[in-house]
Amino acid sequence: MASVPAEEWDDRSGTPAGSARKAALPAEWTRLLAGLSVAFQPIVQMRTGRCHGMEALLRGLERSPFASPNDLLDAACMQGLLAEVECALHAKAVAAFRALDHWPNAKLFLNIDARVVGVAGSPWLAPVALAPFTLAPFTLDGGAPDPRLTISLEISERRELRPDHSIEQAIDRYRQAGIGVALDDFGVGFAGLRLLYESKPDYLKIDRYFIDGIDQDTRKRAIAHALVGYAHALGILIIAEGVETEKEFYTCRDLGCDFAQGYLIARPSLDLRAVPERYGIVEELNRRDRRKPNEASLRLSEVIERQPPLAVNSPKTELLDYFRGDNSPSIAPIVDRQQRPLGLIRERDLKRFVYSRFGSELLRNKGLGDTLLDLVVKSPVCDISTPLDQVIEAFSAEEASDGIIIIEGGEYAGFLSSGALIRLVHERNLAMAADQNPLTRLPGNAAIVRHIERALQEQDRKHVLAYLDFDNFKPFNDRFGFRQGDRAILMFSERLKAWASGNGGFAGHIGGDDFFVALSGAEEKDALARVADLVAQFRSDAESLYDPEAREAGCFEGKDRYGAVRRFPLLSASGVAVVIAPGPHRLTPDTINTAIAGHKAIAKESPDKLCTVHLPTLYPLPCAALAQTEGLR
Where is this region: Disordered (predicted)? Predict the structure, then answer.
C-alpha cells in the first residue's frame, strides 16, 4: 500500500522536473479509496517472539466493485492511474501505522505492484531523491523525514515484471534511501530466481504454498532448506508466510527461517491499538521445545567474535575511531535501528581515509555521501543455530571472503571470521573422519545413535527409523570374493546417499552389510513407501554383480554355514521400519534396537522384505511385548 504524493520527476537527474505537485485522482477513485481500511499483521522473530514489523493489508473491498486488491490495481492500471492509486493506498497505510502506539519499534511492510517498480512517476522514486540519506523516506505533513519510520516494500512475484526497466537500478535507489525490499509470494509467481538475482532483496517471503504442511512434506522441506541456504549466503533474511500450526512453526524455525507470519501468531487486525513488543505464543512455543541446542549452535557461540556493530546512521567519522589502534578489527558490522545486520564496512576499503592526514575532512565531504550505507558491502548471514554444513556453504559465496555475520533471533549476534570458520571446518573434518565408516564414508555408529536420540527428543513429529541389511551376504561374499562384496556395499551406500539427499533423510552405515536410514516429519504411508522403494531398487541393482547365467537362473551356488553346497537367491536387502508416533514417550535407543532385533527374521520372510513396527505413544516396557507388527503391503 502507499504513502507519498506523486510528483513529476526527471529520470535522468532524479530531481523534480518542476515544482512538486500532487497528482489528482478522479473523484470516484478518491471516494472509493476513502472507504477502504488498513489491517496489520505482525512479522515476528522466530526465536525470540519480538515483533519485527507489521504488514499493511487492504480491507473493506466488499464495499467496493472489486473482489480483491489485485482487481482494484488492475482497474487502476487500465485507467493509467496505478502509480497514483498506489501512492494513495500507501499514504493511508502510513497514517494508520503512525496512529498506533509504539509504532517506531517495528518496520512497516508495504505491498507494491511490480508493474510500477522503477517506472517514472511511480511511488518511491520521488522520496529517494528528496531524502536519500535518511532511514525514513517521507513524512505526511511535508516536514523533515522522520528517522523513526522504517519501511520495507514487498514486491509480489505474482505480477510479471516489465521487460523495459531495470529492477536492480530501481531497488538500488530504494536502498540508498534506507527503504528495505522484500520479495513476496516467492516460489509461485512469474519471476522466481530471476527476480531474486536482480533485486538483491533484504527479505525473502516463502509463499504459504510451501509452508502449508511442511512438517509432513519432505519435498517442501527440501525446497525451503535450499532457499534458506541460498538466501543466507547472499545476506537475505527469510520470512515464512502463513504459519498456522505449531509443527509448521518448529519446522520453519529449525530450517533456519528468521521470521514468521501467520494465523498461529496473529490474524490481520483492524482494531490494533499498539504495536506489541513481543508475542507470547512464540515465546511459549520456544519454552516448550525441550530439544537440546545442536552442537553447531553451541560451538558457534564459542568462536564468534562479539565485536560491537555500528548503526547505519552513524556519522562516517566514527569509522576513524572504530578502526584506530593496533588491535582494532578489520571489519565493522553495520546494523539498522532494530539491530538487523545490513552488511560490513572493511578497513581496507577506507585506507585512503584512515591513513590520510585529512581523512576526517574527506569523510565529511558531502560529495562522497553522508551515511555509512554508501560504504556497506553485503555479507552472508547465518543464524546461530544453522548447521555447520550450511555455514560452510554460505562461506563459499563470493561475498564471504571476510567471514559471515551471525544473527540470533534475527538480530546481530557477532561475526564469524574466516580464520574461526577454518578452525570449525578442521574440527568437523576430524570428527567426521573418526565417526565415518572407512569404506562407504557414511556416518558410523556414534552418529547413528546421536540421530536416534535427537529424533526421540522431537516428540512433536512422526519418525520412521529403519534398519536394513543384506540377505545371503555371507555365501555371496564367500562365493564371489570380498572385492565383489565391497562393490555390493558401495553400490548400496551410494543409493542410500542419493536417497537421503533427495528425501531430506539420514543414512548411516552400522558396519558390514548393516545400514540405517531415517525420515522425520513425513506421512507414514509415504515414508514407508520410500523405504520399500529403496529395498526394491537394491534388488535390481545387485543383478549387475552376477554373470548372465546366474541372472538368468535367479540364483547362485554357494556354501551355507555348515559347509554344504546349495543354491541361494540373488542378493537382496530387507529391513525393519520402526514408526514412532508423535506424543510423549519414554523411548530410548536401546528400546529401538530391541524392536529391530526382534523383527529382523520376520522382515526376511516377508514378500516385500520389510516389516513395520509401530511403537505405542506411551512406552513403559520392552517394545517387543507391546509393538504391533505388520508386513508392508
Answer: 1-20
Cα distances (angstroms) measured from residue 218 to each of 32, 39, 303, 566: 45, 34, 32, 44
Give the per-residue SS3 of 539-560. HHHHHHHCCHHHHHHCEEEEEC
**What is residue 16's three-state secondary structure?**
strand
Query: How far is it, in rounded angstroms, from Cα 129 to Cα 125?
Result: 7
Owner of C-alpha cell 505537485: 21
Distance CA 485, CA 228 (A): 40
Longest dimension (CA), the chain: 103
Residue 192, pLDDT score? 64
Most confident of 130-139, 499-508, 588-597: 588-597
Q: Is 101 exposed, middle or buried (0-12, 13-18, 19+ CB in 10 A)?
A: exposed
All three cell numbers of 613, joined, read 513396527
One-letter identity of residue 287: R
Is the C-alpha dihedral spanning 193, 199, 201, 207 positive or negative? negative
Q: What is the rounded distance in angstroms from the CA atom of residue 532 to the CA atom of residue 14? A: 63
Region of 39 on the Ramachandran plot (φ > 0 left; ψ -120 to 50 alpha; else beta): beta
| Whole-number Å distance between alpha carbons of 419 and 216 | 39
What are the pLDDT digits (tens) for 213-230?
Answer: 998 888 888 889 888 888
- Secondary structure string (H, E, C) spanning 242-286: CCCCHHHHHHHHHHCCCEEECCCCCCCECCCCECCCECHHHHHHH
SS3 content of the chain, % helix, strand, coil (to 5): 40, 20, 35
Rg of the chain on CA atoms, in Å: 30
Which pLDDT tens digit goes with each residue over 297-335? 566 777 888 889 998 888 877 777 788 776 778 889 998
Q: What is the DSSP letter of 217?
A: -
400 vs 519, higher pLDDT: 519
Nearest in space to 469 (alpha carbons), one of 599, 379, 382, 340: 599
Q: How far apart are CA 346 and CA 332, in angstroms?
A: 6
Are 574 and 603 contacting, i.e. CB atoms less than 8 angstroms apart? Answer: yes
Closest listed residue to residue 190, CA positions, set 114, 137, 283: 114
Helices vs strands, H then E, count in the chain: 24, 24
Burial status of residue 401 (CB atoms within 10 A of its CB: 0-12, 13-18, 19 or more): exposed
